[in-house]
Design goal:
By secondary structure, the chain is an all-alpha fold. The protein contains 10 helices and no strands.
Length: 172
């Protein structure tokens, strides 16, 4: 399915999502690599096959195979980390925060994509997964490495729109 076909498949009540789906994937604040890596990673986090297939198909024109795989890695590793660190944020027993995670996270260093872009993708996935600790951490890192608040919000707009589109697709 093309992006246009996906947009047209949305019901009338999702008119705003149709409009947003066009605009968030063309924001001037993000490079095509940042946009499409965010879209792929967030589509995985949104768990909708139609959305993911569409985003990956469209992303192939903008990402190398290594970058596409790194976007998938961002979604996979954040799927684990977001649960773990969200637990630490929610639980009131302080001892958990000082204990080692003992979870493999090697792909955070070996993904092969631009490190700033990867952090941006991880932050957007963390927004989808509602992990405050991870959102804050990735936001801080990308801003320390030169991205602005506008970059972060542009990625979060993609995350928010894709999440809403996935919700609508899930009930059609």
């Amino acid at each position: 399915m093309t992006l246009e076909e996906l947009r047209e498949s949305l019901p009338a009540y999702a008119k705003d999502l149709k409009l947003n789906l066009s605009t968030v994937l063309q924001q001037a604040d993000l490079t095509p690599r940042q946009t499409w890596g965010t879209a792929v990673a967030c589509a995985i986090a949104c768990r909708n096959r139609t959305l993911l297939d569409t985003m990956e198909s469209e992303a192939k024109a903008h990402l190398t195979e290594i970058e596409l795989e790194a976007a998938r890695v961002a979604a996979a590793i954040m799927g684990m980390n977001n649960v773990y660190y969200r637990f630490q944020h929610i639980v009131t027993h302080d001892a958990y925060r000082s204990m080692p995670a003992r979870l493999r996270m090697n792909s955070l260093r070996t993904h092969g994509a631009d490190p700033v872009d990867f952090e941006l993708w991880c932050g957007a996935v963390s927004a989808v997964n509602a992990c405050a600790a991870c959102v804050d951490s990735h936001d801080r890192v990308v801003r320390e490495k030169g991205l602005t608040e506008q970059h972060v919000l542009a990625a979060v707009r993609i995350a928010a729109t894709l999440h809403a589109v996935a919700c609508v697709l899930d009930v059609q």
